[in-house]
Write a structure and sequence with these properties.
By secondary structure, the chain is an alpha/beta fold. The chain has 2 domains: 36-159 and 354-364, NAD(P)-binding Rossmann-like Domain (Rossmann fold, 3-Layer(aba) Sandwich), CATH 3.40.50.720; 163-348, Dihydrodipicolinate Reductase, domain 2 (2-Layer Sandwich). The protein is built from 8 helices and 14 strands. It has helices at 46-57, 107-119, 161-177, 194-209, 242-255, 289-297, 316-319, 350-367, and strands at 36-41, 62-69, 77-80, 83-86, 88-89, 100-103, 123-126, 155-157, 179-188, 261-268, 275-283, 302-304, 325-332, 339-346. The chain has a 6-stranded parallel beta sheet with strand order 5-2-1-6-7-8, sandwiched between helices. Strands 10-9-11-14-13-12 form a 6-stranded mixed beta sheet. It is globular, with a radius of gyration of 20 Å. The termini are close together. Bound molecules: NADP nicotinamide-adenine-dinucleotide phosphate. NADP nicotinamide-adenine-dinucleotide phosphate binds next to helix 1, helix 2, helix 4 and helix 8. NADP nicotinamide-adenine-dinucleotide phosphate (NAP) is lined by residues 42-48, 69-70, 72-73, 90, 104-107, 109, 127-128, 161, 191-192, 194-196, 348-349, 352-353.
Amino acid sequence: MLDPRTAEGSGVSSGRREGPDPPGPKPSGKGEPAVKSVAVVGASGAVGEVMVRLLEERKFPVGSIKFLASERSLGKSVKFRGEAHPIQLLTADAFRGVDIVLSSTPGSISKEFSPLAAKAGAVVVDNSSAFRMDPDVPLVVPEVNPGDVAGHKGIIANPNCSTIQMVVALKPLHDALRIRRVIVSTYQSVSGAGQKGMDELRAQVRAEVEGRPAPRPAKFAHPIAFNCVPQIDDFLPDGYTKEEMKMVHETRKIMGDASILVSPTCVRVPVLYSHSESILVETERPITPAIARDLWAYAPGLKVVDDPSQLAYPMPAPARGEDHVFVGRIRQDLGNPHALLFWCVGDNLRKGAALNAVQIAEELLKLDPVGA
Ligand SMILES: NC(=O)c1ccc[n+]([C@@H]2O[C@H](COP(=O)([O-])OP(=O)(O)OC[C@H]3O[C@@H](n4cnc5c(N)ncnc54)[C@H](OP(=O)(O)O)[C@@H]3O)[C@@H](O)[C@H]2O)c1
């Protein structure tokens, strides 16, 4: 039983965990976690592929597993624990007998199928933006608000990739110093736009290098090779983009504090993997680099890489495939003892998406570690 719709008084503790997290589900000491029937929806996509690898790496207690996608993927297969599984068509019937659905499809598909999966008795961890701001749906980053998992009604939302890495870094500062305002500029990789985003950058770079006319942009509004595009998702009437407003609203929901001001600028850059963010944080109590380093030293899921004398700072290429969020370039704001600047990098396909989703599924296991 991993479902608060049917179980009261789960063993999930709310608030922040202490110390870094070893990978893998953690039984409560009562026994091994019961195996689960898992469905990976969007298994052929950029996030879905990483999700499959993480279920293996973290030894998620999978009893049975199925991989679902659109008719475009029929005939393809996914290798899991040495065995090839054919990708099946996503249909309402596909969720029968499934305990946990890890879903990473476009929002419109999730809107249609996630409620059907929940109705069939599964718990859905959804990567899309379809349900993130639904008051009945917890929006969870396990390093920040793991306790919110227990309030689910069948769907749990995984936040936007840029928001996830930022709140992992902000949470310890907020707990100790109370954040008033965050000014963030993102440098987001093309894998944040899925397989097609990566294909588009590769094709344009190849054409440019070979002196051929570059293919026309399709996924992005402008050519992305050798360029930066200050637009991610559609524009809203006030001049912000939807991606920027996700960072505003989701940060407040995850941190449980509607008073935090977030001023975002989201930019797509010609990097394949990992998002970077330049962040200025303003706090109620005075903040210094030394205070921030102390607070980050024991923060779960976060590593400080900050040694200018050795030219050491976080960068997107080395962050690829890493589970941690990295922070560096930590500096006092010039003239403001209540403000600090830093640089924050995370693998958008792992912590920004698939890893966070699998961690949420691991939190679900703790609701019922022995499957009683
Ligand atoms: N990429 C990131 O860094 C990131 C981070 C956080 C959240 N997300 C969110 O995660 C979701 C997936 O992103 P992605 O980057 O993995 O995209 P992607 O590479 O384009 O993959 C999309 C997946 O959805 C499947 N799909 C599309 N239409 C479908 C349909 N009609 N029926 C069934 N399956 C369908 C695709 O299957 P086919 O191959 O068969 O078409 C594919 O497996 C999106 O909502 C995205 O916003 C992405």
